[in-house]
Amino acid sequence: MKLLIMAGKLLTVGGIFILTVTLAGVTLASDYDLEIPLGLDEDLFHVPKDNPLTKEKVALGHLLYFDKRLSKDGTIACATCHMPALAFTDGQPVSTGIYRRQGGRSAPTSINRGFSRAQFWDGRAATLEGQSVGPLTNPIEHGFVNDDEVVSTLNKIAGYKKLFNEAFGTNSITIKQVGMAIASFQRTLISGNSPFDRFDWDGDEKAISEAAKRGKKLFFGKARCNLCHFGTNFSDEKFHNIGIGWRGETVDVGRYHVSHDKKDIGAFKTPTLREISRTAPYMHDGRFVTLKQVVDHYNQGGVKNPFLDNQIIPLNLTESEKQDLVEMLRTLNGEGWQHATSPLSFPE
Prior knowledge:
By secondary structure, this protein is mainly alpha-helical.
């Protein structure tokens, strides 16, 4: 069989080339026009070569992300723990899955995941595609027995079979495709063009307050925040023991579960600070309700333990300096993700 290429278009999204080809008048894939806001480095936005952004995959991933049928008992969707109204978190110290079962960690935001490689607090998923399907077979979260049960559930919904065919050109749904679609949607959840960006990049002196300007100097100076929170997403993408969970509690060993390296005991991934004032509570176990409490923790030098990161030291910030630092952090609320709301309906 010969395919007649009628037209072709070469595009770039985050540095990744997408070839949109029309075959005999039928478009196989349509590019997704993703705008990278001010303050974000497009060159650091990661789109795998085998999963370019297309409108079809993003639309499918959007539905899957919000559909509670993607859980064993039909009560949990990705959006249950990553709510648009809470900057794609759930506002809880630890998340709740099927049958009201509680996990041991807080739900991190889904925003700006395209600027990150390793996912989850302990980095156990090497890709956003892997993260997107991981919770589906977690007995506490979505509760499916295995990937086959996920696929079987979707295969029973004719509307989804049609959408998978449009997105991937196949009648056979696979768990890999599920991950590719959800990851594609998550990559559209971007935060930039914050007041801090307009001040820092455009020189708009009125974009942030005088207190926030003082806070910026502290952030990059006395408070040492930039040792771990730097770059386009305010994260070094590494894992650190900052002294959380060492006051007699059962210790969550964090990254050690993945690396089995003693130096990683109690280490967790540095989260993005973008949208930070909208994503309380804080830390991997959600123990801090306010940003002031977070600053207090760092100011005292964390909680001493055998694996404490050597960058965590007492800061000797005054109360007014702490407040200025919090004011600076509040200026990192941006835009680019607010378009993503719950679908009005789902495939049948």
